[in-house]
Amino acid sequence: MNAQQLIEIITPEAYQRLLYAVETGKWPEGTTLSQEQRDACIQAVMLFQSKHNTEPEHMTIAAGGEVCFKSKSELKQQFQTKDENEILRVRTNDPAQDNAG
């Protein structure tokens, strides 16, 4: 099987399993990958990303096979909220914290 054939048969679900395996060194069921399996998974993930990754994150393979690096400012802009004054407020179970503000 060549690389193009491999890209064509990887489903998004299979890609997520491969990505999890690469990131953790284990299959989702908990079985540890051998070094050969991990190397093969990395290659499969990169091949899949090279065809399907139209919105690459900080350091991934973009569609077309190019390695994509985003600068710190690009990442900040990507995660910036629409309203800079918007804050996530979390209630605690601590009465002293509830009365502090």
TrEMBL record:
Residues 80-92 have a biased composition (Basic and acidic residues). Pfam families: DUF1315. Residues 80-101 are annotated as: Disordered. This is DUF1315 domain-containing protein. It comes from Vibrio quintilis.
